[in-house]
Write a structure and sequence with these properties.
Layout: H1 3-27, H2 34-41, H3 45-51, H4 55-77, H5 85-101, H6 103-114, H7 124-132, H8 138-151, H9 161-180, H10 188-203
Helix pairs in contact: 1-2, 1-6, 2-3, 4-7, 5-6, 5-8, 5-9, 5-10, 8-9, 9-10
């Protein structure tokens, strides 16, 4: 494949992903068809299939983009050895602010939260891919940070990093959802910081 052809294919792939994200988040993952995605882009269904052989592959690609973006944030904001609870908490507050202010990030959040029935048998392979994905994401970042803090003597030794990470992500998730649904306003970031600070006070030595 020539360089120009490869670049064109990558641009087309990006357009398909953007169209899929918009339709999935508005119409719903189950109700969106390849015809819908193709029609929105004035393409044939076969052209979409050439880039993605199934809706599941499209969804996995969207998840990949989100995870890779988060990993870059981690790498840019802090070296691997500097992952601590409060640095990850601070980054997640900024991440929450970005999610509610960036249309594509908000669309992806709504897609993952509201537009997919994860319990359906058709989602089994996607669920398995997500559960076995070893790339660092928000939950893994909190978990790793707490483990680092325990090793450094900053956090009580009997604290379970997994449980702390789950609680932190549940709080983050709930507040972002509340902000997008307009049950919270500009106080979201401040409230989120207070929540993470309360958790830190409870687990530190």
């Amino acid at each position: 494949m020539s360089r120009k052809t490869k670049e064109e294919a990558e641009k087309t792939r990006a357009r398909i992903l953007a169209s899929a994200l918009s339709l999935f988040s508005r119409k719903g993952y189950e109700r969106t068809t390849f015809n819908d995605i193709a029609s929105r882009l004035k393409m044939t269904k076969g052209a979409v299939y050439w880039h993605f052989e199934s809706k599941e592959k499209l969804l996995v690609a969207l998840v990949d983009i989100a995870l890779n973006r988060f990993r870059r944030q981690i790498e840019e904001l802090m070296p691997e050895g500097d992952l601590t609870f409060m640095t990850v908490a601070d980054m997640m507050v900024r991440n929450a602010e970005a999610v509610v202010s960036e249309p594509k990030s908000a669309a992806f959040f709504r897609l993952m939260k509201c537009q997919i029935r994860w319990s359906d048998d058709s989602m089994q392979s996607v669920r398995e891919n997500l559960l076995t994905d070893e790339r660092i994401g928000p939950k893994q970042a909190f978990k790793k940070a707490v483990a680092t803090d325990i090793a450094a003597g900053r956090v009580q030794g009997d604290v379970d990093p997994e449980k702390v990470a789950i609680v932190c992500i549940a709080i983050w998730d709930g507040m972002v959802q509340a902000r997008l649904d307009k049950f919270m306003g500009d106080e979201m970031c401040g409230t989120l910081r207070e929540a993470f600070s309360a958790i830190w006070k409870n687990i530190r030595t």
